[in-house]
UniProtKB/TrEMBL annotation, chain A:
EC nos: 1.3.99.16
InterPro entries: 2Fe-2S-bd, 2Fe-2S-bd_dom_sf, 2Fe-2S_ferredoxin-like_sf, 2Fe-2S_ferredoxin-type, 2Fe2S_fd_BS, Beta-grasp_dom_sf, Diverse_Oxidoreductases
Alphabetically ordered keywords of this record: 2Fe-2S, Iron, Iron-sulfur, Metal-binding, Oxidoreductase
Gene name tied to this protein: iorA_1
Protein name: Isoquinoline 1-oxidoreductase subunit alpha
Domain of life, per lineage: Bacteria
Molecular function GO labels: 2 iron, 2 sulfur cluster binding; isoquinoline 1-oxidoreductase activity; metal ion binding
Protein species of origin: Bradyrhizobium ivorense
Domain 2Fe-2S ferredoxin-type: 1-76
Automatic annotation (TrEMBL), chain B:
EC number from the UniProt entry: 1.3.99.16
EC class (word): oxidoreductase
Keywords, ordered alphabetically: Oxidoreductase
GO molecular-function term, one example from the UniProt record: isoquinoline 1-oxidoreductase activity
Occurrences of domain Aldehyde oxidase/xanthine dehydrogenase a/b hammerhead (ranges): 245-323
Signal peptide start-end: none
Protein name: Isoquinoline 1-oxidoreductase subunit beta
Protein origin, superkingdom: Bacteria
Length: 153, 751
């Protein structure tokens, strides 16, 4: 049994230590917002926070996560009131939506790093997150909008 | 289903024998057949007590209102706009109804294919063209073919869903009149309620039992668009919030009690069987429950998807070799040799004397190429299936519900009606979910695991290996210019045939030439006195299928690049010349609008270049200007302007998003993507080999929607085809270098 904390709740899972966090979340714990897209850190759809940092959950082995805190979009403190989620809704970023939870988790991390990101900052941090539908113009707009909203506070 | 097959084959025959025989057709206009669809109401059988359904799209029980989405949502937003079209007329607000995807039924036949399936140009509104479309519509109705594709969802449903909503509204008013004794004329509706003259509000759900006892009111009048509350105005897609919150369940997110997980390794020599395998290593791996053989490979059943994927990876397989060439170079050789009479698809259009025209003036010749590319929506192929004595139940996101039934049934000797299909929200498609690899294999696996729900998930690598790609194509174009004018254009291409092959795999083979190969080739609206468009269909190559914008994704690149070459040779301005040559007034207006929004002023200089392209696909004319800058790191795509005419923009924000996405799709694959075969398998097996566009390469994209077209058109695909030629033409303007082959990054670097 491996113990793990997700969104503040402790879980015990009976899997091998090499199993990626992504699949533990999805198949063992039923938390489906992190998505399987590539399995090799090429698409970013599985992005979650581990101890506050954005991580590709397909690359994090469960055996290495003892004592660490995992947060998925379901566990964000402000929920739907989070300024990044608000911006994503207001600017209607998603099309199919499959990559968007990963995009949002990455964008939250970007805004912690760069509270007022330039387009270049956005390119550098967000280029690991693939969107096959091509919502990039709206992702960029939503990040700038969220940054402005967060700066007001 | 046998009937559907034989009849729908007729529906797919491009052109109508009946029309050629001179039979006159009455005009199709009345509301009644559109709503009842002439094909019954599949909701009637499943209604609970005191519930009512007025037509195949509206269901009301004492507890809730459910609106049925017949087209599946593949990211294009129809999971939202379909119910909103009903809700607009029904006086419902978002939040007052649930949405369910339609099950398979001929009631949901796609009327939106009628325009594209006849051998007339989209801009041709002549009586003969309209009569052919009317005949095609009746043929589609008889076929009962239910399918999402061809940018047809809004054209198909724009009228019928509003009628469906109006019928529900009027019938509920009659029910309220009967209950209250108040004349119907004095009753109105608002926000999910019938409202009596004294202000009494009756929720729709309270009238369901009484409404069920009266025949639906079919004589309804649709509201004028000026009265719309939601349509045509900036509105929030119904699925945006749940997608942002991570709450929306895609097909891959479903879970069932007692479910087991499966993953597969299939013969990468597409369509060929498994010869033998050694699973000794996989058997003892963690979580593995069973190893199964399927027709073209092996499957592992395990306690989660990852265990299944890891174990199936460890199985050694021996495959039957491919029937197409093992190596990519030989694919090109076959294609190069296909410009011969025995491979003729069709001469689609001939104007003037092309041979004489080519001899006058300056001759220009050019060859263009487009490779195989993959669809690769981010949600990999998946599905849940359970097989029992009674049949199979399947949960999968798919564009062709009836063919899911027939394909799954054929795989395990069932009758199609024994397969119960539940469509799902999908993480994209781009044509991928018109194919059946996951459906067939899931049926085979679940049949060997009877009674246990099986969730199949393809690994990304397996998805790439089994992805039936976009067509491969070569164009050999000739033209001539004289005295500052284009005198002749002789457009020829050889290609594999995507739609024809899809039809064959769907069980409805067609002997007709593949009309998709003509899209972007024959529908050229420039006034060129000598013009010919001819397609050749190569044989013996990789299977191929429809990929976002299908034929026009390749032919649009060839044609609009070549037109640009002719315009340049004639010494003309690329955009002004297109405007002057444009023979269709609404299309000319589109090009003029593009010049206006892009502030087109000719050459830019200073390492900058602008290119333009104009393609009509699926009836929707789209024109784009791309601006690039040459930098020391390569070409940077700065900005794209797009003008699209869809007749009516029903969902403006989503419209803009779709157009931007189409441009990103067109540019990204033109720059970065190809699939190549080696030893019978594609060499690209994950996104690092087939990236398309990431945010750092994405330009600013400015969109203008026009409403001049006399018909309502779709927008999911048409913005794709002009993107590649507009970019190639921009690179030419900036550098003098003509790139005539995709992907462009083989010839020039991009930032």
């Amino acid at each position: 049994m491996i113990e793990l904390t997700v969104n503040g709740i402790k879980h015990q899972v009976d899997v091998i230590p090499e199993m990626p966090l992504l699949w533990v979340l999805r198949d063992e714990l039923g938390i489906t917002s992190p998505k399987y897209g590539c399995g090799v850190a090429q698409c970013g759809a599985c992005t979650v926070q581990i101890d506050g940092a954005a991580v590709r959950s397909c690359q994090a082995h469960i055996g290495d996560l003892a004592g660490k805190s995992v947060v998925t979009i379901e566990g964000l403190e402000n929920g739907a009131q989070h300024p990044v989620l608000q911006a994503w809704i207001e600017h209607q970023v998603p099309q199919c939506g499959y990559c968007q939870t990963g995009q949002i988790m990455q964008a939250i991390s970007l805004l912690e790093l760069h509270p007022k990101p330039t387009d270049q900052d956005i390119n550098e941090v967000m280029s690991g997150n693939l969107c096959r539908c091509g919502t990039y113009p709206r992702i960029r707009t939503a990040i700038h909008a969220a940054a402005a909203k967060m700066a007001e506070k | 289903m046998g009937d559907i097959h034989s009849i729908s084959r007729r529906a797919f025959v491009f052109g109508s024998a009946a029309l050629a025989g001179g039979i006159a057709f009455g005009s199709y206009s009345s509301a009644e057949p559109a709503v009842t669809s002439g094909n019954g109401n599949p909701l009637a059988a499943g209604l609970g007590p005191n519930s009512v359904s007025f037509n195949p799209w509206v269901e009301i029980s004492p507890e809730k209102i459910t609106l049925i989405a017949q087209h599946v949502d593949i990211g294009q937003g129809v999971g939202s706009v379909q119910p909103i079209m009903i809700a607009e007329e029904m006086d419902l607000d978002p939040g007052q109804f649930e949405i369910r995807f339609a099950g398979p039924s001929p009631a949901y036949f796609n009327s939106g294919f009628a325009d594209d399936f006849v051998p007339f140009l989209a801009a041709d509104q002549s009586p003969a063209a309209e009569a052919a479309r009317a005949a095609e519509l009746e043929s589609l109705r008889k076929s009962g073919l239910q399918q999402t594709g061809g940018s047809s969802a809004v054209p198909d449903t724009y009228k019928k869903l509003r009628i469906a909503g109006a019928v529900a509204r009027e019938t509920l008013k009659v029910a309220a009149a009967k209950r209250s004794g108040v004349p119907v004329a004095d009753i109105r509706t608002q926000s999910g309620h019938v409202i009596l003259p004294d202000g009494t509000k009756i929720p729709y759900v309270e009238l369901s039992a009484e409404a069920a006892k009266i025949p639906p009111v079919l004589d309804v009048k649709l509201r004028d668009p000026s009265k719309w509350r939601m349509l045509g105005k900036p509105m929030t897609r119904l699925d945006v919030r749940s997608k942002v919150m991570g709450e929306l369940k895609f097909g891959i997110d479903l879970k069932m009690d007692g479910m087991m997980y499966a993953s597969v390794k299939l013969n990468p020599n597409k369509g060929q069987p498994l010869k033998s395998y050694d699973a000794s290593k996989a058997r003892s791996m963690p979580g593995v429950k069973r190893i199964l053989e399927v027709k073209n490979g092996v499957a592992v059943i395990a306690t989660n998807s990852w265990y299944a994927m890891k174990a199936v990876e460890a199985i050694d397989c021996e495959w039957a070799p491919s029937t197409y060439p093992a190596e990519q170079a030989d694919h090109w050789k076959i294609l190069e040799a296909s410009f011969k009479p025995e491979f003729l698809g069709k001469e689609w259009r001939k104007i003037g004397d092309v041979d004489a025209g080519l001899k006058s003036g300056r001759l220009i010749e050019a060859e263009y190429r487009a490779p195989y590319v993959a669809h690769q929506p981010l949600e990999p192929l998946n599905g849940i299936g359970i097989v029992s004595e009674a049949g199979m139940e399947i949960w999968v996101g798919h564009q062709s519900p009836q063919f899911v039934q027939s394909i799954a049934a054929a795989a395990i000797d069932l009758k199609p009606e024994q397969v119960t299909f539940h469509n799902q929200w999908t993480g994209g498609s781009f044509g991928h979910r018109l194919e059946y690899e996951n459906v067939r294999v899931l049926a085979e696996i679940a049949n060997q695991m009877r009674g246990t729900p099986i969730k199949l998930v393809f690994s990304r690598e397996e998805d790439f290996l089994q992805d039936i790609p976009r067509q491969i194509a070569i164009a050999r174009h000739k033209g001539s210019v004289d005295k500052g004018k284009i005198v002749a254009a002789d457009l020829q291409l050889a290609s594999t045939a995507p739609l024809k092959e899809l039809l064959e795999r769907s069980g409805i083979p067609s002997k007709e030439p593949d009309a998709q190969l003509a899209s972007g080739l024959w529908n050229v609206y420039y006034d060129i006195p000598n013009f010919r468009a001819t397609t050749y269909e190569a044989k013996g190559l990789s299977p191929c299928t429809t990929w976002r914008s299908v034929g026009a994704s390749t032919a649009g690149f060839f044609t609009e690049s070549f037109i640009d070459e002719l315009i340049h040779a004639a010494g003309l301005d690329p955009l002004k010349a297109r405007i002057e040559m444009c023979a269709v007034p609404t299309y000319r207006k589109l090009l003029e609008t593009l010049a206006e929004i892009s502030d087109w002023k000719g050459p830019l200089g200073n390492g900058k270049g602008r290119g333009v392209a104009f393609v009509e696909a699926f009836g929707t004319p789209t024109a784009e200007v791309v601006e690039v800058t040459m930098t020391d790191k390569g070409v940077r795509i700065d900005k794209v302007w797009v003008a699209v005419d869809v007749g009516k923009v029903v969902d403006p924000i989503n419209f803009e998003n779709q157009v931007q996405g189409g441009v990103v799709w067109g540019l990204g694959h033109a720059i970065n993507c190809e699939l190549t075969y080696a030893k019978g398998a594609v060499q690209q097996t994950n996104y690092n080999h087939h990236e398309a566009m990431r945010i750092y390469q994405c330009p600013v994209i400015e969109v203008r929607g026009l409403e001049n077209d006399p018909k309502v058109r779709g927008v999911g695909e048409p913005p794709v085809p002009p993107a590649a030629p507009a970019l190639a033409n921009a690179i030419f303007a900036a550098t003098g270098m003509r790139i005539r082959e995709m992907p462009f990054n083989k010839f020039i670097d991009f930032v």
